[in-house]
Design a protein that fits this description.
heterodimer; A: 508 residues; alpha+beta; five-stranded antiparallel sheet; five-stranded mixed sheet; 12 strands; B: 218 residues; three-stranded parallel sheet; globular
């Protein structure tokens, strides 16, 4: 049997089953006739009629109307031929037999139509049951779907099971139609704006765009009134009354799901807005507080230098100038952090991954921070045979934040170690200092925005680690903090390695 | 910013002309033929990139691009389009002066024969004999490594973008393959540097390219 049901295929199949049924009916009647013929001396004429009727009833139970009716008429003919005198002719001597013939024919006819009706009923019931279970499945999948796209996808998938139709989802957008979901490639030129608007404007009636030719288009409004979406159904075959009814139920389910999704989206947006509002306020207060500190120092020192009445010797002047330079450098780092944070808050933190040599990336960052790091001793130990996929400018922010932290929290002339090696499925880059470390209760909050360790004497916006964490996580990695012995803190960044060959190829 | 630059540069004996728009800048460049142009990419009237292209059509005057951090990509594009160097705001005065000196040196050496020997305390490169020595010992370089080193050294002090290096060393068909350069640079650094993570000569400009820096023996 072919998978595709074309009308000719179906006709052929019908003919084939009917042909077998006719064949079996004929053989059954002939077999019964044989048995009756051989045993006719033991049984009465009425029994013979009963036997034929019984056979017809049995056939009617499982066969179609045609073969059953044929079996009934055939049995009449055979009965006449073999058992009604004169034997072996179709002639009839006694009129009483006509009544028997009539009864046999009528019983056969009645049974064939009864069984036909019953079978129809059975088919109908099983289709309805299947439809119901389809709808149930649809309702279940829709309940699990959270986004509009997944709802559209589910609807299209289930509609295909229901009838020979596809669905696309469209939205009026100004003067043109935007397709929200059109996997089944409904020709957008065949979807006139006026129809969509009409369908959305008159929510209580579904409009049919019928030109009495296939494919036929149906328009159904979905979702909230102010934010309505139109489902356009392309019917590849006409719908039966049952199917039409089913489709109505189907789309009322989809309508509910779409409305629910739209509402939850709005709720989500409101929540995000409230959250970003809260963050903005926090950023503002942090900025005004923490940018003012270095600015205050710079202004104070500059005004000291400007003061003509003050007698400053050369060395002192130089010291003041150096402090101004350092403070402005810190200010610059803070501004960079803020900028990065505002980018990540806008959801623009998508790293542009490129294979980088960690040695080079660390070297580049160190040279940029040369001045800031000049009072500490920097040790590097890096595995040089790896290429790691990372976004250079973002990871530079991470590393400079970690280094900046190390500088701030450890005394001058101590060692800051930068180590990098291959870990399990990842690249581990760590920055260790010989400072005071952090209290273990801080570990949880360390990476939160605006969190600052108890040591308030040391400035900072409390943004650096939060940003670093956001960046590393955007890379699919993790950042952790531990204390190490005898003293100091270690921050470790783990970045996933790409599946591609990251060992450095040796050429030539 | 302009004020700061004027004070600084005049203090070091340069003549400075400062202009607020691209249109004026272009006419003035044609009239006064400056020795170096400092170009801020955030101009009010024209895209800084177009200014670079425009000047490069008829002049090879050194252009040093100054950009804010957000315009990182523009900076690389400006270099690829023919700008000589770049500075990211905020920067210190010593950095700016060093860049200007390098740019001027390159501009003057264009007419003269190329420098054939580079020498510092540890490293010596002799291009006539294709010899590279580190602490007196000869270093063996592969042909690609040598070509990269040669390219960087002939433009010493100046930043070379990945694109420029790829184009010169591998040819125009490879200009998207940044990691080629990274791999060879890593090997080159291991051969020439004491500590490749804190290089002295082959400096990385993250996201932009490389700069070869050699301080002659003092």
């Amino acid at each position: 049997m072919s998978v595709i049901d074309t009308p000719t295929d179906r006709l052929q199949q019908l003919w084939r089953t009917d042909f077998y049924e006719y064949l079996i009916s004929t053989s059954a009647i002939m077999a019964v006739t044989c048995i009756l013929y051989l045993t006719q001396s033991f049984i009465a004429e009425a029994d013979i009629i009963m036997a034929y009727l019984a056979t017809v009833v049995v056939l009617a139970y499982s066969f179609n109307r045609g073969p059953t009716l044929f079996a009934a008429l055939f049995s009449v003919a055979v009965f006449d031929f073999f058992f009604v005198p004169p034997f072996y002719t179709f002639a009839v001597h006694h009129e009483k037999y006509f009544l028997s013939f009539a009864v046999m024919a009528i019983v056969g006819f009645m049974f064939s139509s009864f069984s036909e009706k019953q079978k129809k009923q059975l088919r109908l019931t099983s289709t309805r049951e299947k439809n119901l279970s389809d709808l149930y499945q649809l309702a279940r999948s829709l309940a699990a779907a959270s986004s509009l796209q997944s709802i559209f996808n589910i609807a299209n998938l289930h509609l295909g099971k229901l009838c020979s139709a596809d669905v696309g989802f469209f939205k009026p957008d100004g003067s043109k139609v935007t397709s929200l979901y059109n996997e089944s490639r409904i020709d957008i030129r065949k979807v006139p704006m006026a129809r969509i608007e009409h369908c959305i404007g008159h929510r209580n009636e579904s409009s049919d765009h019928s030109e009495n030719q296939l494919p036929e288009y149906k328009y159904l409004p979905l979702g909230q009134p102010g934010n309505a979406i139109a489902a356009v159904v392309r019917l590849n075959a006409p719908l039966s009354e049952d199917q039409a009814h089913l489709m109505e139920t189907f789309f009322s389910l989809v309508d509910l799901a779409v409305t629910r999704a739209q509402l939850s989206e709005q709720a989500g947006q409101a929540e995000v807005q409230a959250e970003s509002e809260r963050l903005r306020n926090a950023v503002l207060s942090a900025v005004s507080h923490d940018l003012r500190t270095p600015l205050g120092t710079i202004m104070g020192l500059a005004s000291t230098l400007l003061d003509r009445e003050m007698q400053l010797d050369g060395a002192l002047k130089l010291e003041l100038l150096e402090t101004i330079y350092e403070e402005s450098e810190q200010l610059s780092q803070k501004v960079t952090n803020l900028l990065q944070m505002s980018r990540s808050l806008r959801g623009k933190l998508t790293p542009n991954l490129e294979l980088q040599n960690p040695e080079e990336f660390v070297g580049g960052t160190l040279s940029k921070m040369k001045h800031r790091l000049s009072r500490h001793r920097i040790h590097t130990g890096l595995d040089d045979t790896l290429l790691v996929p990372l976004d250079l400018s973002l990871m530079e922010v991470v590393l400079s934040n970690l280094l900046d932290n190390a500088v701030r929290f450890s005394p001058e002339q101590t060692v800051i170690t930068i180590a990098g090696q291959r870990g399990q499925d990842c690249y581990e880059l760590s920055v260790s200092d010989e400072g005071s470390g952090f209290k273990s209760k801080d570990t949880q909050q360390l990476f939160e925005q605006f969190y600052r360790a108890d040591n308030q004497a040391i400035g900072g916006t409390g943004l650096g680690l939060a940003i670093s964490k956001a960046i590393v996580e955007a890379h699919g990695g993790r950042v952790t903090a531990t204390n190490h012995l005898p003293r100091g803190a270690t921050f470790t960044v783990r970045l996933p390695l790409a599946d591609i060959e990251t060992e450095m190829p040796i050429h030539e | 910013m302009q004020r700061f630059l004027q004070v600084l540069l005049k203090g070091h004996g340069y003549q400075v002309c400062s202009i607020g728009s691209a249109a004026e800048g272009l006419t003035l460049t044609a009239e006064k033929r400056p020795a170096v142009i400092l170009l801020d990419l955030g101009l009010p009237d024209l895209d800084g990139l177009d200014v670079v292209k425009c000047i490069r059509e008829w002049s090879s005057v050194p252009i040093i691009v100054i950009s804010a951090r957000e315009l990182e990509n523009d900076k690389v594009k400006a270099l690829d389009n023919g700008a000589d160097d770049y500075l990211t705001k905020p920067f210190g005065s010593s950095e700016l002066l060093a860049r200007i000196r390098v740019a001027l040196r390159h501009a003057s050496s264009q007419s003269q024969p190329q420098q054939q020997v580079f020498e510092s305390e540890e490293l010596s490169i002799d291009f006539t004999q294709r010899l590279v020595r580190r602490c007196g010992e000869q270093v063996h370089l592969t042909p690609t490594e040598y070509r990269i080193l040669h390219l960087l050294a002939t433009h010493s002090g100046k930043v070379m973008t990945y694109r420029q290096i790829l184009k010169e060393v591998w040819g125009p068909s490879c200009i998207e393959q940044n990691h080629y350069v990274r791999v060879h640079m890593a090997q080159l650094r291991h051969k020439l540097e004491d500590n490749p993570a804190q290089p002295k000569y082959l400096l990385t400009e993250n996201g932009v390219g490389y700069r070869f820096q050699i301080e002659p023996v003092k």
